[in-house]
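Revision sheet: structure tokens.
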Amino acid sequence: KYVTRAANFFLGVVGLSILSIMVGAMLFAAGCYDGSLSEEDRVFHDNLHPNYRPDSSTGDTPTFWDLVALFYPAMTGILAGTNRSSKLATPNRSIPKGTIGAIGVTTLLYLFQTWLLGSVVSNEILIHNKLVVAAIAFPSPVVAKLGVVTACVGAALQCMAGGPQLLGAIAADDAIPFLKFLTRKKRRRNDLIKATNTKGVEVLGLDGIGLSRSLDKSLPLNVDFESEASEKVEAENSKRAVWFSWGIASLGTLLGNIDHITPILTMFYLIMYGGINFCCFLLAWVDSPGFRPQFKYFSKGIALLGFLWCIGLAFVISWQMASLALGLVYVIFKYIRLSSGNRLEGGGSSPGADWGEVIDSVKYKLTTAVLARVTGSENFHAKNWMPQILTVVDTDDGGYPLQSEVLALAAQLQKGRGLNVVISIKDGSFLGDGVFEKSQHCKTTLKKFMEKERLTGYAKVIFSEENYPETVWNAVMNSGLGPVSPNTVLMSWVTDWKKLLTQDEDDSAAAFSENDNKARTVDDYANTLKGLINMRRVVCILKGLSFPQSRDKMPRGSTIDIYWVVDDGGICLLMSYILSRSTVWRAGVKIRVFVVLTDADENPQVVEHAVVDFLQQMRIDAVVITVDLQNASLQDDFRADPWDKNCPSGVPTLTVCEKFGLKKGGDDDDLTVASSLASYTYGGLPSPCNGSKPFWHNSCMPCTLESTPPTFPTVNNMPFDNNHERGSMMRQRQKQQPRCLSLGTAKKFNNLIRRHSSPASLVVTHLPLLHKASESVDFMEYVETMMNHMNNVLLILGTGVEYLTTVA
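Predicted:
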């Protein structure tokens, strides 16, 4: 207040001093007045050329940019009006006019005075006489000296009035937490406070800015709340900030020479002005609705130019000091972000302390621009395909994940650089009271677990009264946007499915009440997978009894074993490769590819050579091993026959050997066999899986160990001319019979995996085809048998496209 009142006096004295200096300089040039100088000191055009000399105290010869750094603080002060905007009646009008006017007037004065003195005063006087302006002041040097003292005192008082006020405002807003000691705890608007009315009755009120109002409408309006006026709090905050600023300024004066401080001040001024210009440019560039400049001549191009000019000038003056200043700014920036994050996690931050970040607007701008450009190109080439994973995880009522292993796997697959969405499905409706708040609480808890697993992405907690499959399908379809929608769904295997997932309608309600976000029945789980397959999504099922967490490190010698039976487009290889690049696995993990041979005609050495050559072309470092599992028809459990009408599109149809063209036999044999089958009758027996079905269901036989397929005439009783035709017919007949999942085959496959991969850290193989199971329980039983006595197994089913390519 007092500084503002004295400002006019200081301005008058400084103006009079400047006028006396200019008049004296013009009279000195005309030879009418010498002041404290002599006739020899009047030398015209003595300063037209550079004449840098070593400093008498340091011996260093300054450069042009050193002098710019020394002079630059005299050009500051353009934010004086902004720093005291709270004291202005119309800041939106006064600040632009005052700032531009001050810049124009001071620039003209600096240029005119510099030109005038440099034109008539000798170079020697200008270098050695520090008060040359007082020496030529008219009518007396005292006027100029008084102006110098007044200008210094006035500038110092303005800085001590504006700087502490700005510092106190930063502390009061809690923008920089370590400055909170500068401010007292001030009640915010709409905070409930206790007070006493005029009758001595204690009431509750809303704290405003200096005044309070009663919440009780029945009480009189003249309630006298015992609350401090905000002006008193701000006054005390300003005093603390003034003393703190005084301490910082006093430390600078201890250096003894102001010339040593000015280059440092210049750097911080330039960084500050550059930061203001850069923020204004970014806000204008992203078209932020919250950025509404009222200055009609504002231009984002000029703001960008100001930023580049300030940063460039800082590095030209001294790249070391500029780098140091930028480093300090970065440290403060990171400190503010970390402190803000900790306050939000702890729940101790008030909404008023969150001022937002322009970086978020920039990210949004870039994201929308990229999405707009890739619209219509959702089908990426194999070299650009990356897993956009939607992870389905069950949580309890508090949002704590019940299967954290799927979160760990999703986090470790982030090297694929895809989108991650984690959903938890719970029974309920948002029409109920408190359901939304509960969902937000569960979402916050789930997000914390994602951060614990270092999983970056989005969390969703969905309350729905629809059936479980429909909710999952809707989540998959409605998550993401355009090309960044989920193309991969990760779910955990329900190890206790026999207990929790039942087909009995009476027991399903009880099971559901025990855990309200799991599928109610086996059919729900199986139908969910069927729908995802029909939606052409990559389906991943994880059984992770001892799956490593994201902070673990797998020991050297750990292996990821891939059992490759059918051509799945390379999705098992790609997902295993991505997983091996994570920090958990890449230290010492080794990928082993077990090629499962299912036919006696397959040559192990030829197959191994073909697969090794293929992996080399794909640039995947892996060990290839061929294993034999003949007479089990395992491949038919993972692939579909071309004539299978129940087969969903996109599932595998070829074995590994057929993929590389290593299968013996040809089209001529198939035509011969087909002709023989067409002319042969089965003696009145119904054709398997096509005619009447006395005891098998859904075009397949029941999947039990005790069940045996119906008997048919032996091959020896069929009319063939030679053994080759008989063998070809047998293979073709087996192809035309839709094969059902058999627990015997699953048990053989399980024994094979346990024999070769019992010490493996993770086993990756194909997901059996659900449509080949007579009922959902048979599918669950088959998968359970296949993964029996193994801790970590990942089952994957692709979509029928190629995921690997030799194109980089």
